[in-house]
């Protein structure tokens, strides 16, 4: 997606060796016009597949997920990162390990928001090591629902996530693919 690549080039900042900071339009300040274009793009890429629901994880997945849900006219459910020790009843859970932060989060979705006949599209802001998406896939398996595909705003193709999804035969669409950071520049492709 050309528009998104331009925004990454102009407004993104590279932190260390492998992190892209995009807090001007995605991870802190949000550009709703760009998010709408992103939602429309995902809706086109996953058109006519009978999607009944969008799944994502709080917090940064919510903006692109909501705009995709708007474009496809379906509800959006975000998995919560459970911070309390006592789980509410009737939830699906998965453990999500973050290599970046070296922490484990438990994510959860109330069972009443997923039905056996749902066909879901998973949306997230970044694909790095793929652990958040794997957590959602685990929940989808437990709920016995179909996953039509995964839509990612920014994929870092040099990290493990892509391969983990390919191994499972998941239909993956990423709107910007970053293959490297070189000399302080983002290399797409
Ligand atoms: P993974 O799900 O692909 O395995 O991600 P990983 O553990 O590597 O990353 C943990 C968090 O960092 C995730 O957000 C993920 O979206 C984010 N992240 C990964 N790589 C980048 C990057 O290059 N730039 C930015 N800005 N974020 C990155 P999270 O902890 O779920 O936080 P939230 O922002 O959704 O609340
Ligand atoms: Na995220
Ligand atoms: Na994030």
TrEMBL record:
Q: Which residue spans traverse the membrane?
A: none
Q: Which GO terms describe its molecular function?
A: xanthine phosphoribosyltransferase activity
Q: Which residues form the Phosphoribosyltransferase domain?
A: 36-157
Cellular localization per UniProt: Cytoplasm
Q: Which reaction does it catalyse?
A: XMP + diphosphate = xanthine + 5-phospho-alpha-D-ribose 1-diphosphate
Q: Which InterPro entries match?
A: PRTase-like (IPR029057), PRTase_dom (IPR000836), Pur/Pyrimidine_PRTase (IPR050118), Xanthine_PRibTrfase (IPR010079)
Q: What's in the keyword line of the UniProt record?
A: Cytoplasm, Glycosyltransferase, Purine salvage, Transferase
Which Enzyme Commission numbers does its entry carry? 2.4.2.22
Q: Which residues bind 5-phospho-alpha-D-ribose 1-diphosphate?
A: 128-132
Q: In which pathway does it act?
A: Purine metabolism; XMP biosynthesis via salvage pathway; XMP from xanthine: step 1/1
Name the residues that bind xanthine: 20, 27, 156
Return any one Pfam family short name. Pribosyltran
- HAMAP family reported for this sequence: XPRTase
Query: What family is this protein classified in?
Result: Belongs to the purine/pyrimidine phosphoribosyltransferase family. Xpt subfamily.
Q: How does it assemble?
A: Homodimer.
Function, please? Converts the preformed base xanthine, a product of nucleic acid breakdown, to xanthosine 5'-monophosphate (XMP), so it can be reused for RNA or DNA synthesis.
Q: What is the name attached to this protein's record?
A: Xanthine phosphoribosyltransferase
Q: Which organism is it from?
A: Convivina praedatoris
Gene name tied to this protein? xpt
């Amino acid at each position: 997606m050309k528009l998104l690549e331009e925004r990454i080039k102009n407004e993104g900042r590279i932190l260390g060796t492998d992190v892209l900071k995009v807090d001007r339009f995605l991870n802190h300040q949000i550009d709703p016009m760009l998010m709408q274009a992103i939602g429309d793009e995902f809706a086109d890429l996953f058109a006519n597949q009978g999607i009944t629901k969008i799944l994502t994880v709080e917090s940064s997945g919510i903006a692109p997920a909501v705009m995709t849900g708007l474009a496809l006219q379906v509800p959006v459910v975000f998995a919560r990162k459970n911070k309390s020790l006592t789980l509410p009843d009737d939830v699906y859970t998965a453990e999500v390990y973050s290599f970046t932060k070296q922490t484990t989060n438990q994510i959860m979705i109330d069972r009443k928001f997923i039905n056996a006949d749902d066909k879901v599209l998973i949306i997230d802001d970044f694909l790095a090591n793929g652990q958040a998406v794997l957590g959602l896939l685990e929940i989808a398996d437990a709920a016995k629902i179909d996953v039509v595909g995964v839509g990612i705003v920014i994929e870092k193709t040099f990290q493990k996530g892509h391969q983990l999804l390919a191994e499972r035969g998941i239909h993956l669409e990423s709107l910007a693919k970053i293959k490297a950071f070189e000399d302080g520049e983002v290399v797409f492709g």
